[in-house]
Design a protein that fits this description.
The complex is a heterodimer of chains A (115) and B (109). With 115 residues, chain A is an all-beta fold. Chain A contains no helices and twelve strands. Chain A has strands spanning 3-5, 10-14, 19-21, 24-26, 32-39, 46-52, 59-61, 64-69, 74-79, 88-96, 103-105, 109-114. In chain A, the strands form three sheets. In chain A, strands 2, 5, 6, 10, 11 and 12 form a six-stranded mixed β-sheet that branches. A four-stranded antiparallel β-sheet of chain A has the order 3-9-8-7, with no helix packed on it. A two-stranded antiparallel sheet of chain A has the order 1-4. In chain A, a hairpin with a 2-residue loop joins strand 7 (59-61) and strand 8 (64-69). Chain B has 109 residues and is mainly beta. Helices cover 0% and strands 52% of the residues of chain B. Chain B is built from no helices and eleven strands. In chain B, a hairpin with a 3-residue loop joins strand 9 (87-94) and strand 10 (98-100). The interface between A and B is medium-sized, with 19 and 24 residues.
Amino acid sequence: AQKVTQAQTEISVVEKEDVTLDCVYETRDTTYYLFWYKQPPSGELVFLIRRNSFDEQNEISGRYSWNFQKSTSSFNFTITASQVVDSAVYFCALLYTGTASKLTFGTGTRLQVTL
Amino acid sequence: NAGVTQTPKFQVLKTGQSMTLQCAQDMNHEYMSWYRQDPGMGLRLIHYSVGAGITDQGEVPNGYNVSRSTTEDFPLRLLSAAPSQTSVYFCANRRSQAFFGQGTRLTVV
């Protein structure tokens, strides 16, 4: 069975602080993909990143960075110098490949960034 | 190029009523799915389809039907609405990543 755990339900930070959102996953597959999505207060789901299981390189995109570690089954997301516009719910998701593959989501982490 | 379009955006139903949530895509992706989002539970898969004429159940299929007569459309039917189906519903298609519709906020009273 596939499972994604986001243990942090809510995080509050002050603007300009760095914040890390944790994501731990379980899968028996050797080939899979991991995702992060952002859901701002307006409600839509915005794709942030996709990482395949064979690529453990960390990725940086502006203030966002992702740390993928297969040894600990984790795919953590860090926002550097957070801003109020980063306030949203963030979802980590796992897609295993194969017949009728399904995208499995974690329960999400609500990030509140205040001035 | 609209991507994935869901209608309606908001709906209030009475218990026992039926309705269809519409989902259409213009991206020609084979895979489409419906999720429901409830507080503290993330997004849970209701039904999915890997192509026209092929559908299958996800994690929480009870009380919902789907059909896929064309690649473009994937409607979700609530047969007899119940308060437990109050939720936000998202339709998505997928190739290398999932593209989501804007969501439908459904309230069953």
